[in-house]
Recover the amino acids of this structure.
């Protein structure tokens, strides 16, 4: 076969901001994921393809539990379904001991179908219907109340139930994070949270078991967690001393950052994100000083999402074309775009060529295949000169992409889980036209038979 001629060239040393891992050039080839060859995976399951590493999922979970359990005696993780609710992923975490944290009726059903016992499902979210509240109450799940209308609805429902529904109050508070996430739950500082708690206790119809907050996401400072833990602990104290109601658990939500790099950040995420050990230290330290007797320390629940799954996910894909833009910049079109990588709106994902395709590198704009202007994955990334058919690996895409992906003008691809031995298991099929067509219905008057036949004009 005739080799393509490559003009000899002195490779430009792309210094970029240096850090302990060297420069930010992404030219390094990544040919395998967990021992499985990228080329083989794409040949077997099609391109593009999401790949998840079971080994990494379990490692992340075990490290997270260790970070907190070594510092605080009673810790429980609840897997945040919306971060990645593929059944296989959820089941890995449930096998490791995680409860389920769900934010919709759909996710609640998924948790039940994954075999999670009702009492181990925490039901968050601002949009629970009456039927969903009823189902959760009947299954003895904990309903995390978001607003007064939900509280009134549940109080009404509770009259007809044999058992008192268990509830927690979602609190939003000033933890020094701005803009403050005050749209979920009851505000602490203006007395709304206390008002809700008092009504719950006074009603006698609900069992108040927990206090919950989720102060934000991708938090780059540990301090707000100390503030939030202190405020929830104080609130729990008030419940005990003023309402004679001991609080069984404090739920500090999620929000711990993955090691992805935020768009426009000067340093890569591996350098800037505090570790889970650092977050655990602040939270545990605060709770140990909060005045609880050792045997009365509340259970600490965490709903970590992205930090547990982001770096276990990869997106493999293929170059469709390269072209020059009007200003001469090199552009590369990939077979996946923002339709599959929703998080590219926030992250500069690391993208690697899946082979040693070329020694020349150049700054490239990365576009997806969508026919819309916003479908740009990277504005400028230093990559080898890729050609049609070359393959790439996008790193740390396990969180939020497989739940927020959109169908738009193409079908969602297959997803594969690599087990501990690196063997691939398909955990979601690629969508097909037939699958999507199933949902559509064409009214009778639009069916072919009903359309009056017209004679094509002929040019005789
Ligand atoms: C989204 C969400 C989480 C997980 O957040 P991460 O930032 O991914 O850790 C946890 N709890 C609640 C209530 C959420 O809405």
């Amino acid at each position: 076969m005739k080799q393509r001629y490559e003009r000899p060239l002195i490779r430009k040393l792309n210094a970029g901001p240096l850090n302990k891992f060297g420069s930010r050039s992404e030219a390094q080839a990544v040919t395998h994921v967990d021992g499985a060859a990228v080329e083989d995976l794409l040949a077997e399951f099609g391109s593009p393809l999401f790949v998840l590493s079971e080994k990494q999922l379990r490692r992340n979970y075990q490290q997270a539990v260790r970070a907190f359990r070594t510092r605080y005696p009673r810790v429980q993780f609840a897997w945040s379904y919306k971060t990645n609710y593929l059944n296989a992923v959820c089941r890995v975490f449930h096998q490791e001991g995680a409860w389920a944290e769900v934010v919709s009726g759909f996710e609640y059903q998924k948790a039940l179908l994954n075999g999670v016992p009702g009492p181990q499902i925490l039901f968050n979210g601002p949009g629970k219907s009456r039927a969903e509240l009823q189902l959760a109450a009947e299954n003895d799940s904990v309903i995390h109340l978001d607003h007064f209308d939900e509280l009134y609805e549940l109080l009404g429902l509770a009259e007809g139930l044999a058992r008192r529904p268990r509830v927690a109050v979602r609190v939003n508070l000033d933890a020094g994070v701005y803009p403050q996430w005050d749209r979920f739950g009851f505000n602490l500082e203006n007395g709304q949270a206390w008002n809700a708690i008092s009504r719950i206790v006074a009603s006698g119809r609900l069992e108040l078991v927990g206090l919950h907050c989720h102060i934000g996401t991708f938090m780059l400072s540990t301090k707000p967690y100390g503030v939030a833990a202190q405020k929830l602990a104080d609130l729990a104290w008030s419940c005990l001393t003023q309402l004679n109601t001991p609080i069984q658990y404090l739920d500090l939500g999620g929000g711990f950052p993955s090691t992805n790099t935020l768009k426009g950040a000067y340093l890569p995420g591996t350098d800037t994100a505090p570790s889970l050990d650092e977050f655990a230290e602040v939270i545990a330290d605060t709770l140990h000083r909060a005045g609880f007797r050792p045997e009365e320390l509340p259970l600490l629940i965490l709903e970590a999402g992205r930090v547990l799954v982001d770096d276990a996910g990869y997106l493999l894909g293929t170059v469709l074309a390269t072209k020059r833009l009007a200003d001469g910049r090199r552009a590369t079109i990939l077979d996946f775009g923002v339709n599959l990588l929703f998080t590219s709106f926030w992250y500069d994902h690391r993208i690697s060529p899946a082979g040693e395709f070329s020694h020349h590198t150049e700054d490239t704009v990365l576009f997806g295949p969508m026919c819309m202007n916003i479908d740009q994955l990277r504005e400028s990334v230093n990559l080898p000169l890729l050609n049609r058919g070359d393959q790439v690996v996008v790193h740390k895409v396990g969180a939020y992409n497989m739940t927020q992906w959109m169908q738009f003008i193409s079908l969602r691809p297959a997803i594969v889980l690599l087990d501990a031995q690196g063997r691939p298991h398909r955990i979601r099929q690629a969508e097909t036209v037939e699958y999507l067509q199933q949902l559509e219905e064409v009214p009778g008057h639009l069916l072919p038979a009903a359309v009056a036949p017209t004679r094509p004009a002929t040019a005789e």
Notes: The chain has two domains: 54-310, 311-432. The CA atoms of residues 91 and 217 lie 24 Å apart. The pocket of pyridoxal-5'-phosphate is lined by residues 80, 82-83, 101, 103, 124, 214, 217, 253-256, 303-306 (CB under 6 Å). The chain has 13 helices and 20 strands.
